[in-house]
Amino acid sequence: MGANFQYKWVLGVVLSIVVQLLFLRDLALFYYGFCFIYLWAIIKAPIETPPVYLIIGGFALGWLLDTFYNTHGMHAFATVLVAWLRPTFFKILTPANGYDERSAISLAEMKWLWFFPYVALMLFTHHIVLFLLESSTGSLLGLSLLKAFLSTLLGLGVFALLELFNSSK
Amino acid sequence: MNQLFEFLLRQRNLLLFILLQVISLWSVFTYNNYQHTLYFNTTNAWAASILSTRQEVASYHQLRDINGELALENQKLHQQIFQLQAQVQQKADIPVFFSKAALDRYKPIACKVIDQSTRNSQNYLTIEKGSQDGIKPGMAVISSTGVVGKVISCQENLSLIVSVLHTSNTISAKIKSSGELGYIKWPGYQPEVAELMDVSKYKKVVKGDTIVTSDYNAVYPPNVPIGIVAKVGLQDDGTFHDIKVMLLTHFSTLRYVYVIENKFAGQQAKLEQAKPKID
What we know:
The complex is a heterodimer.
Chain A: H1 2-22, H2 40-43, H3 51-69, H4 74-92, H5 107-135, H6 141-167
Helix pairs in contact in A: 3-4, 4-5, 5-6
Chain B: H1 2-10, H2 12-31, H3 45-60, H4 63-90, H5 100-103, E1 106-116, E2 122-127, E3 140-142, E4 147-154, E5 159-166, E6 171-175, E7 181-185, E8 193-197, E9 210-213, E10 225-234, E11 241-247, E12 256-262, H6 265-273
Antiparallel strand pairs in B: 1-2, 1-12, 2-5, 3-4, 3-12, 4-5, 6-7, 6-9, 7-8, 8-11, 9-10, 10-11
């Protein structure tokens, strides 16, 4: 499993970034639902990944997104934040029988009661920080909350679909 | 000393996290000063080449619409030529009050859009011409149907434009029929609708009025169409009209724009900066 999984993850990261930059940039569901699939890299990184790599990787990833979105540091800020918070989320959401070294982050392995709260926490934290930074004025607070909420729902749907496709193989 | 190193080593995640967050935030806030030019945006050479290829594929599927728009624009231009010719003939024997320089004060430069966004709260466009083609920060950008925005930074062959769909990019505007002044501000959502601010509730505004750029505008030429009044209400404070304006520029399908070079911009800025004291 090990090496095979890593290879799949790397492929997934590259694919998710390409899809994000070339296809999902202009996509918005009812104006408010945005899909940030590039977070796949952080969300699905193997559990034992050292946090240092995750934080540096998150920064590089966010900075790349910022270059393409003209947002200058906003994606970097939000992505580094979720990369840093990931171990904390793991602690909050410990499954009944704990983690073992073979467990991977997937719907099939962790079951939906762990997987969905985890993805929702990651996505919502990222989105709320991103949209608040982006709106840059307090007057858009309600709008940012709505955007973050709807985007999280959309993201959950997309991640669930990806997992279902993945597990059938 | 040893303890310090040990502490740093133990807390390296936290320290790295804080360092990167500070770098990100610094980037956010220096850039939002909004005149700052940083290399890391879509005018970055390789980001632009990727986006340009992407746009080429996308615009191939829109050729029909683009053709239609061009035909309409041609029609409009022909009409204007006829009108101007008629005026010239009429006024042939009246002394001319314009200097020759004033007649060709504004010069349009046609540019291809390689990247744009409409869904964020602060939107930008990237165009495929830059300082080599005579484009400078501060120039106005319009489309065949209305205003688009303002150039904020230039590379050699690429420029970044801050769109009208940006909450801190306001435009001095007036109502075409009555000449009432105000300014256009985008509220941060719905890429089709902006708001006309600062029009007193005692002035008459009718649904369907055309909003154009005002004459007191350092960036845009006067009388460029901006939008059509779609809804008139009263603002919460009760002193101004709450006017919703349907923008005439279709930002989501924008493919070609005109950057307007104002030959007097430098002179005007210099004059207004160094206002002599009258006493």
